[in-house]
Amino acid sequence: MTAPAPQTRLRAGRSSETAHLTARARAADAVIEPGRRLLSDTYAHLFVTVPPPATSEEALDRLQRLDRAHGGFLAEILLRQRRFEDLVALAVEAGTRQVLLLGAGYDTTALRFRGTEDVRFFEVDHPATQAEKARTLAEAGVRTDAVVSVPFDFTAGASLRDALSARGFDHAAPCVVGWLGVTFFLPVQACRSTFAELAAAVAPGSLLLFDYMDESVVDGTSRYEGALAMARQVAEQGEPYVHGMTPRSAAATARAAGFEPLEQLRVPDLVRRYGGDEPYCSDDDFMGLVTARREPSGRDH
Ligand SMILES: C[S@@+](CC[C@H](N)C(=O)[O-])C[C@H]1O[C@@H](n2cnc3c(N)ncnc32)[C@H](O)[C@@H]1O
Predict the structure, then answer these.
(1) What is the rounded CA–CA span in Å between residue 245 and residue 190?
(2) For 86-124, what is each residue's pLDDT tens digit?
(3) Any idea where the domains of the chain sit in the sequence?
(4) Residue of the nearest CA to atom 11 in ligand 1?
(5) pLDDT value at position 301?
(6) Which of 68, 88, 107, 168 is 20 to 30 A (C-alpha) from 225?
(7) Which run of H or of E encompasses 209?
(8) Which atom of ligand 1 is nearest to the CA of 178?
(9) Confidence band (pLDDT; 50, 70, 90) for 127?
(10) Alpha helices of the chain — where are they, by DSSP H?
């Protein structure tokens, strides 16, 4: 007999607390003076329960305290988003008109996007988190015309392709997919089936950006104490990391589903690329980010 799945926050119908955590980091970063901030998420403050810092110095102080406790997380949270927004800009320039976010949380890419008006953002997330996001944006009077919400639970065994079809997603047109900060919360089977579902849903040529947590953080053997402390914290909050990968297994998992890895970045690579001359965050190396392209399958020829 298989053990019953543990009761997690989402399964209990409560919105994601880790999505709040990433929004808090982005909201504080947005207060830092322009030359030093790592992103510029001007909507993140809507999703925080603790007021964002008032000044650039306060924001730096708050974020650097977090960074000392959990080195590498800020870089990952803020800079994977930079990479994603670069990818979206490049794809849109090349003609892509659909952006798909899996586990979108309180992502505000759609709200800040200033490209052509005909780009649609499909935001897939657990219904509990999605309801919280919709309520917050409605209360703030923020228009979300370009956003199509797709309530979906990656662990429920439903068809992602069908859920997207029902909301008007064009399976024949290439898209760019961001799956950020999510794979490690999904049991391995749910993660693999989401890869397979995604491959069945998107057109060849579509680009995928996903991140993974090192196996060593999930199994408790990592040498990065701050990562292990974060693992304990999110588990206590009801969103445990349950599934890690390695650079090799991440590439193999993507390839097995029909996505060819194009680039692998680790936290230090992100900091080198996007952190500026004097990055305010550290670069503990326990997470990775993979850019991959959906290859034509036998059926597609
Ligand atoms: C750490 S947050 C990341 C949010 C956003 N992508 C970001 O980078 O800020 C994890 C997100 O995954 C979603 N998530 C986790 N498990 C899920 C599941 N089984 N089905 C759907 N969404 C899930 C949560 O609701 C949450 O929004």
Answers:
(1) 14
(2) 999 999 999 999 999 999 999 999 999 988 889 999 999
(3) 75-296
(4) 103
(5) 43
(6) 107
(7) strand 207-213
(8) 6
(9) very high
(10) 17-29, 56-69, 73-93, 109-112, 127-139, 160-166, 188-201, 215-218, 225-236, 247-257, 267-274
Going by alpha carbons, the residue nearest to atom 16 of ligand 1 is: 185
Site of tokens 């206590």 = 236
Q: Residue type at 229?
A: A
| Mutate-to-test residue for ligand 1 from 7, 8, 9, 10, highest number of ligand atoms within 8 A of CB | 10
Name residue, tokens 């662990």: 155
Architecture of domain 75-296: 3-Layer(aba) Sandwich (3.40)
- Please give the Cα distance from 134 to 144 (Å, whole number): 9
Q: List pLDDT tens digits, range 267-296.
A: 999 999 999 999 999 999 999 999 999 999
Supply the pLDDT for residue 15.
Answer: 87
Closest-lying ligand 1 atom to the alpha carbon of residue 155: 19
Mean pLDDT for the stretch of residues 16-34: 95
| DSSP SS3 for 299 | helix
